[in-house]
Every structure is written in structure tokens, then in C-alpha cells.
Amino acid sequence: MHADDAGREGLSGGSTLLTEAREADRTRPYAEGDPILEVRGLVKHYPLTRGILFKKQIGAVRAVDGVDFDLAAGETLGIVGESGCGKSTVAKMLVHLEPPTGGVIRYKGEDVTKLSGRALKAVRRNIQMVFQDPYTSLNPRMTVGDIIGEPYEIHPEVAPKGSRRQKVQDLLDVVGLNPEYINRYPHQFSGGQRQRIGIARGLALNPEIIVADEPVSALDVSVQAQVVNLLDRLQAEFSLSFVFIAHDLSIVRHISDRVGVMYLGRIVEVGTDEEIYDHPTHPYTQALLSAVPVPDPSAREHRERIILHGDVPSPANIPSGCRFRTRCWKAQERCEREVPLLAVPAVFRDSGTPARHDSACHFAEEKRVVPPEERREGPGAAGEAQPHPPDEDTPGSGGTDEGGGEGR
Ligand SMILES: Nc1ncnc2c1ncn2[C@@H]1O[C@H](COP(=O)(O)OP(=O)(O)O)[C@@H](O)[C@H]1O
Ligand code: SF4
Ligand SMILES: [Mg+2]
């Protein structure tokens, strides 16, 4: 049992209620293993214009430039990449906050980019987002009850007026906050607690998919594991499918079934947890892994650090051929001419080893960067049953911390 789950047995009433509600809402049952979400050739280009009165397009910011992935029902897909790689733009397109420039997002087999009106509203309900920054994403003038219950204004069918207060209190309970705090304001909570409020709001409509965009990046390191634990537990409890975005591979390692590594608008390598962490074949993934903190000093000494030079190039000016070539230590002439496709590299096609997974590199090679026994001990080790301190990042909030989940 996770530390996050400690003492929560008595709180399962709310969760059962939500699960039942969701099961009743389902119109189309899904066979196990069917992808709930299929993303194909997803593109978002922002036009670059010049001129004030007569705007002339002079180029485009290719924020997302052809992203493909599947999300199985009940699966957690981690998406990782440096800042500016297009992760948030993918997230916004998945939850319909941004229209794609091209490509397909199929939810249960239906292309939702073509939907409008009532059909779109129904789909949007099932795909919810948890935002990166709990300090700016919650309206400071609204009570926690109003924030979490706000989605019911748009979808009153999920919770008729008379039942809303109880529903919101159930949700507070589910995310480890005291249901009596329903009338408090965001500033009365710590960062971790605010993110729990954001998560409760994400759950309000009983969604099937949660897109969490760097949900712990803005939080204190001491609180990050608690929130990751909470998401992990909720994922299992509500059979949620998760897209979990992070800029650091160490955050998603314990929560993800599969991980996609993104670079400059594309996924460059994707595979299971074991394939990506123990058998990475793309130089970018290997470089990211070499930057993952290793707690054991002797292991740290023996580990090879791959230093990436320079910054991510501008998405308005993507390099020809392999988009990673300007920073890749293995780049050759072919890399400048030919775009490597995201597929199993020919050298591994018949290998039968975990190196046999999709990697967009002409010269894919296995390189174990982090020994497997170490990678389970990292600071973001969400799965460990160690007692966590309660959220401690409250700036003099009048003792609201006791409502913070594990500490309660
Ligand atoms: N509305 C916008 N107009 C122009 N460029 C944008 C817009 N939103 C994002 N971008 C650019 O798209 C790229 C990807 O951004 P983003 O998806 O936020 O990356 P990430 O979340 O991985 O840090 C960045 O270069 C960013 O500056
Ligand atoms: S295709 Fe070439 S430049 Fe791109 S990652 Fe592979 S070796 Fe590096
Ligand atoms: Mg982002």
C-alpha cells in the first residue's frame, strides 16, 4: 500500500459513488486492450506574421509537427521532453483547448477533431486536464467548492443541483482533502493541496481520460511524490487512462506503463517503461536519462553523463533531416538528408530483445545509461511506501495543512 493510501480505507464511500456513476454513464463498453485514444499525424503550427495592418505570413512555429501515439484504456502514457518541445500544445489539443492544424485524434474510434456541438461537448466531458501550475490555474476569488463544482454548470446532467455539494465533498475526500474545507479559498491551501483541488476538479465529470500537464513541476520536491502517488492511486481506483506529461524522465518512471520521448514537436522514441529506461536506443533519450539524478554516490561516479550542447532549436526553424542532429554526438551526413521515421530500427527488428521498440534514429544503438537497480531509487520514486511528510509549503495559511491527504 502506498503511503498516500494510508488511513484511507474509511474514505472509500466517495470513490465507490464516483465509480458507479461512471459505469452507469458509459454508453459503449470497451474490450480490454482497445486504444481509447489514437493520435495520428497531430500537427499544430502557429503562423508567424509580419506587418500591422496587412498581416503577411512569413513562416510558422511548428510547435507540434506530426505526433502519433495510442493510449490504451486504463494505461498511463508518460510524455517527456525538454521545455519548448510541444508537450503542452499536444495536451491542449487533446482536451480541445486548441484546434489542431492537422491530424486526427480518435476517441473510441471517432475522430473528435471533426465534432462540434453536442457531440463535442459529450467527448470533452470524458477527457479532462490537470494543469501545471496550481497557483495560477485556480480562481482565487472562488471557493474550493465552486471551483470543483464549476464543471457541473456546463454538464448539469452529471450532478443535479441538489447533489452537488455532496459530490464535491466526495471529491475532496477522494483526493485526500478534508470535505469540511469546501468553503475555503485557494490561498488557504499549500501548493500540493491546491494541486489536489485541481485534480478533484479534473475528476468532477467522471472522465475516462486525464491529461496531466506537468502536474508536479511547480511543486516543492518534498510534495511531488505525494501528488504522483495520489494520481497513481486514482488511476487504478477509477480505471482512468492517463497522459502524464513531464520534462524529466525521473518523474514519470514509476507511474507510466509506456513513455514517449518528445523532441521539437515529434515523438522520437516510445516504448514500455523497461524499454525506455533500460534499453533506450535514441541518443536524445539516452542524454535525458543520463541527467536523471542517481542517489548512490558510487553509482554516480561510474555513470556516463551525456552533455547536450546548445538549446532546443526554434520550432520556427526546424533542422532538415533528423531534427535532433544539431545536438547529436552521432550525427552523420545521412542525418541531414533523411528524416528518420518513428519505427522499430532495422537492426533490432529480429532481435527479440527490449531494444526492439520504436525509435526515430538512423543509427539507433542500445546504450544502458542508468543501471536498472538504481533507477528504482530515484527521488521521484513514487511507488515507494515511505512515510511522506504532510505538505509543508503553506505560506502561513492558518493551519490548513492538516487537511493535506496523507497527513490527515
Ligand atoms: N500560441 C502560441 N503562438 C506561438 N507559438 C507558440 C504558442 N504556444 C506555444 N508556442 C510555441 O510552441 C513551442 C512549444 O510550446 P509548448 O507546447 O508550450 O512546449 P512545452 O510544453 O513542451 O514546453 C514553443 O516554442 C512555444 O514558444
Ligand atoms: S538520426 Fe542521426 S542525428 Fe538523428 S538521432 Fe540518429 S544519429 Fe543522431
Ligand atoms: Mg509545457
Descriptive notes:
- The chain has helices at 12-25, 87-94, 117-126, 144-149, 151-154, 164-174, 191-203, 221-237, 249-252, 273-278, 283-290, 297-302, 333-337, 372-375; strands spanning 35-50, 56-72, 76-80, 102-107, 110-111, 127-130, 209-213, 241-246, 258-263, 266-272, 358-359.
- It has 408 residues and is an alpha/beta fold.
- The protein has a 7-stranded mixed β-sheet. A 4-stranded antiparallel β-sheet has the order 2-1-4-5.
- A hairpin with a 5-residue loop joins strand 1 and strand 2 (56-72).
- This is Oligopeptide/dipeptide ABC transporter, ATPase subunit.
- GO terms for molecular function: ATP binding; ATP hydrolysis activity.
- Belongs to the ABC transporter superfamily.
What is this structure, in a nutshell?
The chain is of the alpha/beta class. It has helices at residues 12-25, 87-94, 117-126, 144-149, 151-154, 164-174, 191-203, 221-237, 249-252, 273-278, 283-290, 297-302, 333-337, 372-375; strands spanning 35-50, 56-72, 76-80, 102-107, 110-111, 127-130, 209-213, 241-246, 258-263, 266-272, 358-359. The chain is globular.
Explain the layout of strands and helices.
Layout: H1 12-25, E1 35-50, E2 56-72, E3 76-80, H2 87-94, E4 102-107, E5 110-111, H3 117-126, E6 127-130, H4 144-149, H5 151-154, H6 164-174, H7 191-203, E7 209-213, H8 221-237, E8 241-246, H9 249-252, E9 258-263, E10 266-272, H10 273-278, H11 283-290, H12 297-302, H13 333-337, E11 358-359, H14 372-375
Family: Belongs to the ABC transporter superfamily.
Domain ABC transporter: 37-289
Region (Disordered): 1-29, 353-408
